[in-house]
Structures are given as C-alpha cells and as structure tokens.
Amino acid sequence: MKPFDYVRPATIAEAVTAAAQPGATYLAAGTNLLDLMKGGVSRPDRLVDVTHLQGLDKIEHLADGALRIGALVRNADLAHDAAFAKAHPAIAEALLSGASAQLRNAATVGGNLLQRTRCAYFYDPTSRCNRREAGSGCDARGGENRLHAVLGWSENCIATHPSDFCVPLVALDAIVEIEGKSGRRELPLDELHRLPGAAPQRETALEPGDLIVAVRLPATARDFAGHARYLKVRERTSYAFAVVSAAAALRIENGKIREARLALGGVAAKPWRARAAEAVLKGAAPEPSAFSEAAQAALTDAKPSGDNAFKIELARRIVVRALTLAAAGTPARIPALPASPFASGALHA
Amino acid sequence: MTHSISLTVNGARRDFQLDDPRVTLLDLLRERLQLTGTKKGCDRGQCGACTILVDGKRINSCLALAISHDGADILTIEGVARGDQLHPVQAAFIAHDGFQCGFCTPGQIMSAIGMMREAQAGDDPERIRECMSGNLCRCGAYAGIVDAVLEVQTSEANQRRSA
Amino acid sequence: MPEISLTSAPAHIRHGSNIGQPLTRRDGVLKVKGQAAYAADHHPPGMLFAVIAVSSIARGRVAALDVAAAKGHKGVVDVMTSKHRPELAIDPDIKTNPFVFRMEVLQSDEIRYANQPIAVVIAETLEAATEGAALLAPRYDALAPRVGLDAGETFAPPVVGVGNPAEVQHGDIDAGLAAAAKRIEATYETPPQYHNAMEPHAIVASWDGDTLSIDTPSQAMVMARARVAELFGLVPEKIRICSPFLGGGFGSKGFLTGPQILGVMAAKLVGKPVKLVLRREQMYGPVGHRAPTRQRLRMGIDAEGRFTAIDHHAKTVSSSYDDFYEPAADASHTLYASPAIRSSHEAARVDTGTPLFMRAPGEATGSIALESAIDEMALACGMDPLAFRLTNYAEVEPTTGKPFSSKALRACYEQGAARFGWAKRPLAPRQMRDDSGLLVGWGMGTATFPALMFQAEARAAIRRDGTGVMEIGAHDMGQGAWTALAQIAADGLGLDVDRVEFRSGTSDLPDGGIAGGSAHTATAGNAIHNAGAAVIARLADLATRDERSPLFGAGNAGVVARDGKLFRRDDESRGESYADILARAGLAEIDARGTGAPNPTAQTDYAMHAHGAVFAEVKVDSELGQIRVSRMVGAFAAGRIINPHLVRSQLLGGMIWGLSFALHEEAITDRRTGRIMNADLGEYHIPVNADVPPMDVLTVEEHDPHVNALGIKGVGEIGITGSAGAVANAVWHATGVRVRRFPIRIEELLTPL
Known about the structure:
The structure holds 3 protein chains of 3 kinds. Chain A is of the alpha+beta class. Chain A has 11 helices and 12 strands. In chain A, strands 4-5-8-6-7 form a 5-stranded antiparallel sheet. Chain A has a 4-stranded antiparallel sheet with strand order 9-10-11-12. The termini of chain A are far apart. Chain B has a 5-stranded mixed sheet, covered by helices on one side. Chain B is an alpha+beta fold. Chain B has 2 domains: about 80 residues, Ubiquitin-like (UB roll) (Roll); about 80 residues, [2Fe-2S]-binding domain (DNA polymerase, domain 1). Chain C has 3 domains: about 180 residues, 2-Layer Sandwich (Aldehyde Oxidoreductase, domain 4), CATH 3.30.365; about 180 residues, Aldehyde oxidase/xanthine dehydrogenase, molybdopterin binding domain (Aldehyde Oxidoreductase, domain 4, 2-Layer Sandwich), CATH 3.30.365.10; about 240 residues, Aldehyde oxidase/xanthine dehydrogenase, molybdopterin binding domain (Aldehyde Oxidoreductase, domain 4, 2-Layer Sandwich), CATH 3.30.365.10. In chain C, the strands form 7 sheets. Chain C has a 7-stranded mixed sheet with strand order 4-6-2-15-12-13-14, sandwiched between helices. In chain C, strands 1-23-22-21-27 form a 5-stranded mixed sheet. A 5-stranded mixed sheet of chain C has the order 10-18-17-16-11, sandwiched between helices. Classes of the chains: A alpha+beta, B alpha+beta, C alpha+beta. Chains in contact: A-B, A-C, B-C. At the B-C interface, α1, α2, α3, α4 and α5 of B face α1, α3 and α14 of C.
C-alpha cells in the first residue's frame, strides 16, 4: 500500500475541500477501498476519512413521505431496521444477500454505491484496463469473461457493477444527495453510474470532492412494499457476487399491474433499470405471459461480450421469476437465504 | 508523522503512537500488540479468519484501518474467556468439534458471538448457516460449527425463558 | 524439550479408556482461545518482515527490477534478488531423491510460471515490506506461455503419482469391449484446483551462527529439515523445525516450498530473524496444486450387466521443469471386477507451478470420472446404480488378483443406502420434485483409498511417578494427531491418557514420518504402539527378574499393563505399579523406542484399501441453473477407528471437498497469459457454511488383521472420493442433464424451458 496522508475532517465542507485535491479519495468503512489499495489497483495520496463526520448515519422520515438514508448508515443497520425493511423489503433483501455479515456490518450506504467493478482484469494492475488506466486497453475482451456485461458495454470495457443494494434502489427511483465544491445537489441514482462508452475511466457522474451524503427514496417507493422481491443467482449459496440478479416491484390494484419497477444486476456497468419492461407490465394482468413479454423487452438490447451468452437467457428467466415472486406477494419475513431461489417457497410462490 | 490512537482492547485501554496510517486493525493486533489469536487468512475480506468485534459488531479486521477506528472498543478471541472459564461458544466448539486445524476458529467464534448479538438467526439452522457464511473453513467443520451455535442459542433461550 | 507438550486436556470428555473413545480434541482449549501458536504467530526479538514479489508473466525472464525504488521506501532494509542473495550449498533444481521437488529460490532470472517469486523485500514493518515489493515494478522478457490441457506436446509420463506405472493393463481390453453387449464411451474434464489451506504458508526463521530455528507448517518435518540442510549445507541436527499446529495442509505443506526457503535465505541475508507469509494470491503458483485432467472412460458390459472391460485413460499436465502426474486413471484399478481393466496416462508440459499432491491425488480426479461413468453404464443397461455396483463387486482386487486384507464395502452400501432411503429412488431422471417445485435427484458413488504405511519412530518412557511420556515428531494439520496419537500412546503405555505427556510437533523428536496419504495415524500410531510395548517389556523385565517383586518369575506366564500397573497374565491378583518397580530399581525413568512401518509380507499378499459408499441428494432450480446439495450420507469402512469424534470430522470434511469438486472449485486461467484470474478466496469458490447441508456419516465396523498391528486404515482422504461423483450423479438424476465437465456450471443446466 502506497503511503498516504490521513485526514479526518470535522465538517462536510472540510471534507469536500480536502478530497477535491488530486490524488485524494474518501475513506468510509474501506471494505472495498482497502481491498483495492492492497491489490495496488487504487493508490491514493490522501485518504479523507469521513466516518467521524456527524449526522450522516441517520435514517430519517421526511415530511413529504420520503425516506432519507445517511451515507454512513451501515448496510446491516439499514437492512435490520424493522420499519425500513417493512417499507422497502426488496432493498433489505438485496442488502442481506450481499457480501457477508461482517462486511455488511462495516460497509456504508455511500460506499456500497461507489464500489468498483469486480472484473478480474480491473483488479489486476498488470492487466490492461481502460477503466483503471484510460486508454490502456481491455484485457477482459477475449479473456476470461464468462461473467461480464451483456448490456450497455462497449469495446472499451465490459465490466459489471457488483452492487446488490443498487438494483432495487434504482428500480425505486432513489435519489443521491451530493455535497460538492459548489454546494449541494442531487441526482437520480440511475444517473450516478455511467456506461463505459468511450471513457470507461469515468465511472460515475461525481466530480472531484463530491461526497455522497444521503440516498433518498421517494414516498412512492413504499407503494410497492406488498409486491417487491430481489432475486440473485450466484455460484455459491452465500458470500458471492451475483451472476445475474433482479429487483421486481409491482403495484397491483384490482387484479392489474398499475405500475411496475424492474432492474437487473450483474449485467452492466451500472444497475440496469428496465423501463421498456416496466411499460410492458403497466396495465397488464400479473400473469406469466406478461412476465415473459417483459423479460423479452428487458433484454432486447443484450448481446454477449464474450463467453457469457448464457447470461442473457439467465437474465430473462430471473426477470420472470422475480416478477412471479413479486406478484405472489412479499413474504412476512426475509427468507433464511435472502434473494436465493432456494429460499423456501421461492420457486412457485 | 505519527498519530495518537486510543483503543479499548479486550477491556483495557491502550494508548499508542501509530507511525504509519496504513496499519490495519488486523496487523495492529497481530504484529504490534502481539495479539496473534486473530488470524490472517486472505487479508482481503474474503475468508473471515480475522473477524473481531468492534463496538460490539463483528467485522473483518483486515479491511479496517486502525487509525480510522480511534476510540473504538475492540474484542478479540483473547478477550472472550474469563481466565480458565471458557465462553459458552468456545466450550460448544470443543464439544461439537467445530474445527479441525483451528486456524479459522478464532474468527468463527468471534463471528458466532457477533451473530448472536445481532439476533437475526435464532435457532433456525438454515439462518445460522447463512449468517455464518462469512467465515470459510477449508477443513469443512461447518456441521460442528452450526451444532455449536445451535446449542448455545438454545441454552440461552432456555435460560431467558426460565429467568 | 519441546515447548509444546500436552499433559492434560482440561476440557475433554471421556467415556472409558483411550483407543476407540470419542475424546474431544486435547488441543481444543488452545485453539478456541486463540492460544495455539501457528507459524506466523511467532515474533522473535529483532524480527523483520519479508514480502515476496511475484511474476505476472508465466514464461520468460525478469529483465529489470527497480530495486532502488524499493530500497528507497522508508523501512525497507534489503531487497533479495537473483543477483543479491545468500549462496546455496546445492542447486535447488537438483533432485537428490524422488521426494525432492524443484523450487524457485531466486537461483536465476528465469520465470517458469505466473506468481513465481522473483524478489523478496525485507523491512522493519509489514507495511513497508509490502509496498517495497510493489515498487519493484518488474520488466520482463516474456515468451508465449503454454496454457491448458491441449498446449505443448503430448507424451507418456514415465510414472504417475508416486512411482506408479503410467499404464497398467489386466486382461484384453479390445476383446472385452468387442464382446460387450453394451458399451459406453465418455470424456470428463476436471479443472486445476488449489489447496487453499486457511493458513497461508508462513515461516519465521532465526539463525544463530550455524544453527537455525524455524517455525513453519510442515506435514513432514524431518524431510523438510533434510531439504533445508542440503540447501544450506548444514547438518540436520543444527536445524530445528517447529510445527505443532498446521492451519490445514491437504498436501500443500508436504514438501518445503520455495517461499519457505526464501524466508530462511532472507534471514541469513539480513542477519536477523525474518517472518515471511504468503499472501493468498501468492499461493496460486509456488506451493502446488491439483492438475487438470481430461479422462476418457470406455466400458463394456455383458447381457447380465457384468463388466467385460474398463478402459480409463487420463490426460494431465505437469510443469515445464518438474514431474508430477496426477494418477487419475489409477482410480479404476481396485473398485469394480472386470476381466479387462486398463489405466493409461498421457501428459503435456505447461507454464505452471508444478502440480503436487492434493487431498486424494489421483483418487479424487479419477473417482468423479469413474463414478460418473459407472452411473452412465448403469443407465445404459437399465440397472439401479447400486445394484449395478453390487453386480460388479470386486471380491478380489481385479488388477492383481490379491485378496483384500478386509473389505466391508457391502456393509457400507447396505447401511448407507438404508440410512439414505435409496430404495425409493426412481430409475429415470427428472422424476422427483420437492414441495416448492425444485427438481430433486439422488446419486451415489463408491469411495476408496489405499491403506498406506510409511516409516516412523517413537520414544516411550515411564517415569518414577508412574506417568508416561511419548515422543514423536508427528503433525497435526487438523486431523487430530494431538488427540488420537495420545490415545494410542496411553493404551500402549497402559495408562490413562491424562497420565501421559505426549510430546510432538518438532523436528528434534523421533521422526514421525509424513502426514500424508491418510497414513499418519497408522504409521505414527504403530510406532507409538510399538514404543509403548517396548518400554513395558523393559519394565516387565525389571520386575520379573526381581525377587522382591510380586511379579518375580512371571516371565513365562507374561504380564499385562493396565492403569499404571503390571499384572501377571495368569493371576491378576498379583501386580505392581510402574512407580514401585522403578523406585525399587532406583531408576528415574525407563525408556524404549519403537517403529512403525509397512509389513512387506502383508503388502505382498493382500490388497489394502479403505472403502465407502456416498449418497447425495441435490435440489435443482432448472430454470435458473442453480444447484444445492440438500443432504448426504456417507458410510465408510476404514479399519479400526481410534477416535470416532475426530474421524467423523475428517470424513465430513472430505465429503465437503467432494461437494466442492463437483459444484464449486476451479482455478480460471487466462488462455493468453497463463495467469490465474481468480487467485483469491472471493472468486475461487470453496463452499461456505450455507452450501453445506446436513450430512450423515456412518462408520462400518471393520476388523483388519493385516494392514498393521492396530488395524488402522486412515480416513483423511477417502471422504472426497465417491462424494464428488455422488453429487454429480444426483445432478443428472434431478435434471436428466449429464455434465461431464467439472465443476458443474449454471449454464450447463439452463436447458430450454
């Protein structure tokens, strides 16, 4: 690990100033950053430790019905907050299906949003990677890319975003609150992460010094609480990143889907909101034919970036299953194996 | 540049000068405080051997900078027993053979203690298995680990009921 | 005097005496308190930290290292390279005996595989050494690497495994196949796998003049000491290796590896104690692995379902610079009766670290292919897989015609099948679903592993206070040597286990041999047993020759030792305590040595194997390609069980390795560079707790008078055999999809809806 200056700002303003310098980066729990630093992937000159900032670790119910989650709320604390889990069950389920209990105890909400891809070539500083080093090339293309992107990728980068948490968040129109050099602004989560295009090194819409201070869920997000699920296919029952995942949330009235939300994980460089599929579902009866049509719509633009054509078909099937599960109703309690098809009753709910 | 750090480790306050901000909690414990019960299996948050409790919660100490945890209350495997009196989880690990080589064991035990405090699994073996999945065991002692945790969970639940 | 000696076990539970009792681990308290000191837990005064820099190419040369940058980093003391290192007494590439493997210890700038050590940075802190290694920023002259089973030229290896012939033929394969009523031919592939013991290879080395003290995990301390001695030109007695606890071995700590020698060299270079611990990713190269295989099985059966031929051919790879050939096809030698059996091997050389022994080498890879093929053959003739196996039950070892020293496999089949409920299994696949609609499948596999013996020696003593001492440089890598061997020692000395001081885990004790081949308990145990018998004989000699002893003159009748006393065999009212005998003789202690070794006559006359039957149930979500093992039953017959508590754990662990083999483990090598892209524990998947279902282990009573005096066969490796195939066969039974490439992946089960 390269030596770095350690700065512990007392205020958000101090933090923003300290982190706006070239070579500086924010440190929250460090569950991803320290891993990257140990691997030589990230070599910051300065760490701006925000974990001691006051007031960023609260879950607040706002007057307009929105829920504001402080960026320093720990993933486990959020998932285990009973009121939160009741209002936003798919988000809680996604949180609990990520990483391990130890990592969830440490990892923060803001940090989860900003975790980097798990592409092995990104993680290996001796491989060429446009995301890590602009213009160096992409060794994942033509390499071991069975788990890489099938949506939104470019010739320059085929990495995926690894977060589970972000998938239902993006489905439910989460807003990211940011403090930066020019003050506070906000951004739909869907606009936080960028697709690689010609500049994969620009992973997010954040500018130097920008600090995510909160994630906000609009009041409408809880309208889906009765029919919301997260489903994740992985290569171990637990403690593994998604091969593909999906968050499905439905508002069902009088036997019809009034509104649908759908997002996919593990398929693109960002949590993938499937708006075309949502449009298909709107007004339809919650039945297999509609789910199947939605799945086709969600993956219309998908194409393999390597040895990963199976992920397209898998993603379609996960969409159908997640919608089926959501339509059947949110379970009263998060299953023993969160987001797993082996959670009891997860197949034909 | 040195940084003054104060930690409570296994109940005792430790003040010291940290000459390098790169030191993780794990390496601080193992290489500077000679508390080697906490193990390094991967150093990347992928095995759980380094699990300790920080302010009562289980975390991977390999992915935690010591300097960032100034003021924290830390419990390691060395602080779990009261002298010769083993913690119930420790005794249950022996009784149920919840280990073979023993290298992952301090992390498993700290994780189990942390898990019980989280109170999410209860006495459901499926939930215990899931909640203990952040601790790899290459010897494959998982059955004994689950049995050990179940025994302690059950006996504590019984004690609560009779209290 | 070793600092590790266990005189009592504060927390053990005992129901009677010694051998056969389910004692809890005598090292259990140390382990649950974090007090068991593994190699990397040592910190001698003045110790420095060494960190290895490894190659990122798989073939070529190191062209340049930025040593100045590394040395310029605060805290860095020295940088050891091929140009700046202590001289070794011999070339590390000279194979002085067949158990010496070539290693990379900076003898040149040549690169043989990715992750090969190319420099060592020594610093005052771990942080400085780690960053120093990163600053070396190597440049290379790279050559195109040879990667995968199809690289390079194929050749017939001279031998496979440990001196096994590469080809064994019994009967006429072609005639057998030609005469068959039904035939199958199928090809299976197994991937490279890495041991990944939870404890990374570590060494703390301290030189004091020409004596050397080493803390390092070893499955064979005396062999390791000999290797250090020859490399550094020392007499072995000047070297002390301390290895009381291994954080897992599985074969990867059987031979001293390059990084461990580099730790010794670094300590010599800087003149201070040095600690060197491999980073997890650095364990994917210099410390051995299980080679990939491609195995073709051809089988024929007659109209009654009896084999006419089994032809098992395996392709594997070794490194470019040394020889170890995974003896996968040998798995077909012993299990099933057939008038014609052939095993054959071919190999290629690739740019990888040398593959080595990994838990059940040959048996594990061969078993999953063989047991899958058996399943396919049973299907082809419409027979239940268990009935098919029973039809082809080998009453004698088929390739040699030797009788088995013991073989309770039928009982394993019966008891395992009964416990599992196998009789209710529908013959056809895709017939069973659970309440939630998941496909359910049942599969089985036969387990087998040879009952081996190596060489070991032990020293036993009885002290004037009536307590005993047993000394042996044995190895506990989790199998429970501290406990099981102490139980044997106690019985050998006629004492309660709490009255025996069991000393172990250092190289200055009598040579405990190798903890490998599932032979350690048998080999060390018999040495202990014989040492105990020898010291009791000496004690008896003292007493029976002494007129003052109640045992005087009992020489012909003989004496028995029990509870710290000797008794006349023909009159147990006449006896005397050990303490009294020694006191009268004026001796503080009496001692004797014993050895454990294979019995050559028995080896010639009998085939010696442990056996078992494993049954697995899987649930498959076929729409999503997800598999989960939901239960397993293993029934094993492995001779005498010294400690059922520990044996159960060993067998469970093996079964989990089998599950892992079938569904999880695989090192992914980049085809272009020869680099392993999942060299960690995040993406190289070993099962987590949630992957492991309830498992039942049955041990079937088996008395074997031939394997050794104690009747021990060993249980360390057999659990993985049979289990991998059982899981794979269950996946087929659930889905109807036969996957022949392991581990079974999601996409292979994403069948059309």
